[in-house]
Amino acid sequence: MIHFSHVYKTYSGSVQALKNIDLYIDKGEFVFLTGPSGAGKSTLFKMISAFDRPCSGEVTVGEYNMNSISSSQVPFLRRKIGVVYQDFKLLKSSTVFENIALPLKVRGDGDNYIRDRVGEMLEHVGLSFKRDTFPQFLSGGEQQRVAIARALVHHPGILIADEPTGNLDPHLSEEIMDLLDKANAQGTTVFVATHDHEMVKRRNKRVVQINNGNIEKEFGGLDV
Amino acid sequence: MSKAIIEHISKSFQHHPLTLFSSLLVLTATFTIVAGFFVVTHNIENSFQSIGKNVQLSIYLDDSISPEDKSKLETQIKALEGFNEPIFTSKSQAAEHFKSSMSAYAPELLNEEYGNPLPASFEVALKAGVDPEDQLGLLKEASKSIESLIGVDAVSYGQDWVENYATVVRSFKVSSLLLLFVLFAGGMLIVSNSIKNSLEQRREEIEILELVGATSTEIRVPFIVEGAMIGVLSALGAVAITYLVFLSQSGLIQKELGFLGLGNGLQFLSPSKIILFSLFGLVLGALSSHLTVRNINTGWAASGAGSVNG
């Protein structure tokens, strides 16, 4: 599903963000990516969502080879991925409903389908009563639930989450991880970057540990 | 217009009213200068046309011209392109005209004992609607083709006056185009700055749209439509302001500058010119927005361009 083969990324000023990354994530897997700040986690995620590309090596996401993908194909790749960020990235001038509906609108789905599907997602994340609320009136946990609903509303094959619980307290973090677990149980491949080692231990999933642009360690959930 | 575009524009008005209002205001002011300039040039051209109506070719005949040659000459004058039918003035008619206009000043002139020195002539005026810039060329060409014919003594069209007149018309047109170019460039800068502001304020929104898979076209088109709307609204506003100024000032101008041949009255822009002017605003707005937004959401392309092999 996601395959990195001998991937290097160097930014101007000779900053080596990724060095010889070899990683394979199978369809339906749940994988944690851990490592300190500046380890290369965000660069890796940017490559999966086509916001960056490798200097050398090969990255494949689903049927897309990121070395040969054209600019015009990039939006269509992104429509098959759901992305969640630490800072939620919600449209401030749009309601909860409108935020969640965005991927469906972009895809050109009909109003009836959008209404029903967004309704389902609102129920799924427990925010039906907030459908017409603007993000600034939501708590951090609620905003992240909206972001997760938006990332899953279009049934993506892959969900990547970059520090999704970074701004949340432990209780809310567990709630968010439960939602990601649910998505994984329904067949979505989930790849989560986090600093929270305690949570990683509790979840018993595959863990990829990255440091200084290298994969230092990789181990399955039962070995944690 | 699609729902997404309407939503985009209504959000622009809701969330950035000040930016939009200031852009509209500045662009309307610029367009008012352009519209005013069009009205002025239109009326000056009309005045040139009315002055040009007096431009004519006088073909003086030899006293010895035979009736056959005179008839042949008349046929050739009639064949000239861009000219009206010639009017013949005989020697005696010329003397009569002269006498009636000069008798008060010099009654001894054209005393019959000295004979009549005035020649017979054909007067041929340019057709109405000939562009003032083409008049000199037509007169020169006609003069050249006529002066060598049998029975023609001299051809005159007030060469110096017509040449000066043509120079004025030409200079006026060149300076009009230059000024128009400067105003066009200024207008583009204004719309472009307004869209840049709008882009900066919506940077996060654009990133989110990219994130959920919106195509470049889906992201750019609303901004281009927004620019086009700013352009067309400003153009219409400018036409309205110019019309009000025109209404309040035209009487005074006509009275003070009547000598410029504004006898038929000052004219405002015709409906077709107003439509063209609005289209001009629309194109200018859309074009400057297009130039501003063409480089947004280039994260993918930029990452390739900036990468270093490692």
Walk me through the topology.
The complex is a heterodimer of chains A (224) and B (310).
Chain A: E1 2-11, E2 15-25, E3 30-34, H1 41-48, E4 56-61, E5 64-65, H2 74-78, E6 81-85, H3 96-107, H4 111-124, H5 140-152, E7 158-162, H6 170-185, E8 189-194, H7 197-203, E9 206-211, E10 214-219
Parallel strand pairs in A: 3-8, 3-9, 6-7, 7-8
Antiparallel strand pairs in A: 1-2, 1-4, 4-5, 9-10
Chain B: H1 3-15, H2 17-52, E1 56-61, H3 67-78, E2 87-89, H4 91-102, E3 121-125, H5 132-147, E4 152-156, H6 159-201, H7 203-211, H8 216-256, H9 271-293, H10 299-306
Antiparallel strand pairs in B: 1-3, 1-4, 2-3
In short:
Chain A has helices at 41-48, 74-78, 96-107, 111-124, 140-152, 170-185, 197-203, and strands at residues 2-11, 15-25, 30-34, 56-61, 64-65, 81-85, 158-162, 189-194, 206-211, 214-219. Chain A is of the alpha/beta class.
> Major beta sheet of chain A, specifics?
6 strands, mixed
Q: SSE order of chain A in H/E notation?
A: EEEHEEHEHHHEHEHEE
Structural domain count of chain A: 1
CATH topology of chain A: Rossmann fold
Give the overall average pLDDT of chain A.
90
The share of residues in helices of chain A is: 25-40%
Q: Please compute the radius of gyration of chain A using only Cα atoms.
A: 17 Å
Shape estimate of chain A: globular
Please list the strands of the largest sheet of chain A in the order they lie side by side.
6-7-8-3-9-10
Parts with pLDDT < 50 across at least 5 consecutive residues of chain B = 300-310
- Give the number of DSSP strands of chain A: 10
